[in-house]
């Protein structure tokens, strides 16, 4: 699943009782006008803490102080994601083009198995041009697949060769039933809130004899009728807290879609592709429509890495000499392991040096196959950057896949980085409140809160998530490697880690605690480094390591 915070339901959305109704904390309220917030935060990830008082990665400082006048070499970054709008005004000239392929001739000119793969490949489509958009969650698919086989069977009835599948089924069963019950209950409460809101809204409009009303209008109502008084009280508090019905309806629709698609045991959109998802040797399927459906997430990620710099449009990407390869495998729901495996192989085989993976899930039936694909990339010197996830969980304890370390006596992937999300201000909210963490599993943090970037149709929007932090690191990596191409992949990874700016002793809000009680934890306990990636420091270290070697 795409990992940005508005998609990480149940874990990061909090509901609170208020005026006998339920309000979405952080979703139907906005503490700041959206336009004001955008103006304040646009390109903040590129800012410098000393000169700009924003906890960015010092991108502009790197260009102005060290890289000015230096030459660079193009670096291909694969955006394995939900799709990319390759015609976007702020991306178009930085989109990777397969020069070995003749556009539109219906022939596999470069004989890589993919016909007319001009800007990448879409593993969520078929030759007719149809595309998978919505998908179920992996936990739903595993539960549906194994329920018939294992339902009502006791542990004593399980054969030794079935033990692994049975354990997977048990985990899926617990997770699925919990998600389903929570989602259904939440939706029922939201529908209850909506009824109270709409009834109150209709009652006030009828009393005022007008279709729109202000807080002052509500204050003018002084009747003693208890029902009307309750309606006025509710609506007054909603207005004071900047309630937006449109935003509320979007969140309500999300939970409705969760039941309709993500947790629907009978939903199977994969039939349009017609492949066997258990056959990991099958890699030739899909189509060349890398935008597909629902490309907002992937286009946003691509912009953070390599939106055209200094063109007066949208935002400035981090890397100025980059080619963005689009590989579509992430639907609105959970990605399939088979598609991830094929996407990694496609990216590596077609020249990508960095792979951005802003997706993840907690159940991965074919995790060994995905791990081997990561090892394949490692062997060919490709840097793998993965988002830590948005469940505010300790992923030392709850594994989020794909992972660069499966244990089981297998060496971890040496070119893999796991990234958490940090915020703009240096205060106790420095860790994005949604961001996963882990002293053993998360390597470093990067800006991932209120990140403004490209979305389809030449538009721009701000998202939160480790999905946004991940391409910040991929962008810094591409920036460094393009100016210092003599570095090996392992050297590059080492530079990114060692040059990150440490905030080990800085205290931030402790995850999953009541903010009103202000319990804190040292930032250093949330990742291996306790640090935030920094482009200027990375470039400076790369310059020192390569001095005299050019």
What features would you describe in this structure?
The chain is of the alpha/beta class and 550 residues long. The chain has 2 domains: 328 residues, 3-Layer(aba) Sandwich (Rossmann fold); 123 residues, no CATH class. Helices cover 35% and strands 12% of the residues. The chain contains 14 helices and 15 strands. A 7-stranded parallel β-sheet has the order 4-5-3-6-7-8-9, with helices on both faces. The protein has a two-stranded antiparallel sheet with strand order 1-2. β1 and β2 form a beta hairpin. α3 runs parallel beside α14, α10 packs parallel to α11 and α13 crosses α14. It is globular.
Q: How do the strands and helices of this protein lay out in sequence?
A:
Elements: E1 14-18, E2 21-25, H1 34-41, H2 49-52, H3 59-67, E3 75-81, E4 120-122, H4 138-150, H5 163-208, H6 215-219, H7 226-240, H8 245-262, H9 296-306, E5 322-328, H10 337-349, E6 354-357, H11 367-379, E7 383-387, E8 416-422, E9 444-447, E10 451-455, E11 459-463, H12 466-483, H13 489-498, E12 501-502, E13 507-509, E14 520-522, E15 531-532, H14 535-546
Helix pairs in contact: 3-14, 4-5, 5-7, 5-8, 9-12, 10-11, 12-14, 13-14
